[in-house]
Design a protein that fits this description.
This protein has about 120 residues and is mainly β. It contains one helix and eleven strands, in the order βββαββββββββ. Strands 2, 4, 5, 6, 9, 10 and 11 form a seven-stranded mixed β-sheet that branches.
């Protein structure tokens, strides 16, 4: 059973920081990759950051490079997204995701809302 539960969203002013957390079930945690996606109103969901092969490789969308950091705590089955220097354009629903058996991002949590005001 794949379960992903996000938390940590909220409302901040431009330039502020937030840390998102995602607690995963054991099955989800065993996947080859996990990541964070976001979807703003009227826009398609987009990938923000990914972590692969137990943390040996990470990737970021260009829009968040240098500001966001993805990490994981294996002891807690928890994925994190540290977000700094937040901008109004970062406002979106943020989703935790885990890869399926074929390697693509297949499972998503319910999401946590991030709102950045100018």
């Amino acid at each position: 059973q794949v379960q992903l539960q996000e938390s940590g969203g909220g409302s901040v002013q431009s330039g502020g920081s937030l840390r998102l957390s995602c607690v995963a079930s054991e099955y989800a945690w065993s996947s080859a990759c996990m990541g964070w996606f976001r979807q703003a109103p009227g826009k398609e969901r987009e990938g923000v950051a990914g972590i692969y092969s137990g943390g040996s490789r990470v990737s970021y969308d260009d829009s968040v490079k240098g500001r966001f950091t993805i990490s994981q705590d294996n002891a807690k089955n928890t994925l994190y997204l540290q977000m700094r220097s937040l901008k109004p354009e970062d406002t979106a629903m943020y989703y935790c995701s885990a890869c399926g058996a074929l390697g693509g991002f297949e499972y998503y949590g319910q999401g946590t809302q991030v709102t950045v005001s100018s």
